[in-house]
Amino acid sequence: MQNPEHSVPDATPIDVDEEQLTHVAFNADGLVPAIVQDVSDREVLMLAWMNESSLRRTLETGRTWFWSRSRNELWCKGETSGDRQYVRWLRYDCDGDTLLVGVDQVGKGACHTGNRTCFYRSFGTQPRPATGP
Amino acid sequence: MQNPEHSVPDATPIDVDEEQLTHVAFNADGLVPAIVQDVSDREVLMLAWMNESSLRRTLETGRTWFWSRSRNELWCKGETSGDRQYVRWLRYDCDGDTLLVGVDQVGKGACHTGNRTCFYRSFGTQPRPATGP
Fold it and tell me: Coil, strand, or helix at residue A1?
C-alpha cells in the first residue's frame, strides 16, 4: 500500500485475534524472537525480541515494536532514526516460539551500522556473494 | 552446486575461521538462534538453536546441525526424515547474536508438520497471502 513515489508507506494494522495470540509460546523471560523480512525482495533484515505487549502494539499500529533486553523498555523501530518498518504480515511458527514479520523497510535500512541488513558478514575465508544463492 | 536433476545437492564445507567464530555471542546457555532461509526463493523456513559445536559441524560438513534444547543433544536436520539442508552460506549479524543460514532444502520441506516452512500461519482474521509482498 505504498504511494506512487514509494516513499511513505501506510501503516496498516492487523486484527488482533485473541485465540491466535494464545498460540505464541513466550520464553521464561516472556519473550519470543521475531525475524524481520523485507517483503520487496525477501531479504532477512534483523532479529529482535517481542514480549506480548510489543506484539500487540505491532499488530495494532502496523509498525514494529520490540522489547529491548538491554534497556528494559519497549521501542518502536525507526522512531529515532527514521528507518521505520511498516508491517505487511506477521506469522508464527509451528511451535509458536518464533515470529516472522514481513515489512516495508524505509530509510537506509534496518541495521544501526548503516547496512540495510544486520546480516552483512559471512563465514568463510573465500569471498562469497553477499546475497542470494 | 546441484546435479542436473536438482535432486541431490552436494554438501559444501565452509572454511572455519577462528577469528570469525570469536564474533559469535552465545547466550548464557551457550546458544545462538539460527534462522534458516532457502536460497532458491528466499523463503524463511525455520529457526533453531546452535551451540559452538553445532556451528562448527555445520561449517565443516555443509549440513545444518542444531542443539535440541528439549533433548539436550546435537541433531542434523533431515538425518531421520531425509529433508536435509545443504548450506550455501552462513552469516552473522551486527551484534553476533543471531545467525542466518542459506540452504538448499531437499525433501518435502523444513517443518515436521509436512509444511515447507514452519511459518505457515499468519495473524489476522482477514485472509492474507501465504507468501510474498
Answer: coil
Q: How many CA atoms does the CB half-sphere of A61 hold within 13 Å?
A: 17
Domains annotated for chain A, with CATH where assigned, are 31-105 (3.10.20.810)
Q: Nearest-5° angle of CA A85, CA A86, CA A89?
A: 115
Whole-angstrom CA distances from A132 to A51, B65, B83, B84, B126 are 31, 21, 21, 19, 32
Q: What is the ipTM of this complex?
A: 0.90
- Pairwise CB contact (< 8 Å): A92 & B133: no
Each residue of A66-105: pLDDT tens digit?
Answer: 999 999 999 999 999 999 999 999 999 999 999 999 999 9
Q: Give the type of residue at B133.
A: P
Tell me the residues of chain B between 16 and 55 that have a Cβ less than 8 Å away from chain A. 16-17, 20, 23, 33, 35, 37, 39-44, 46-47
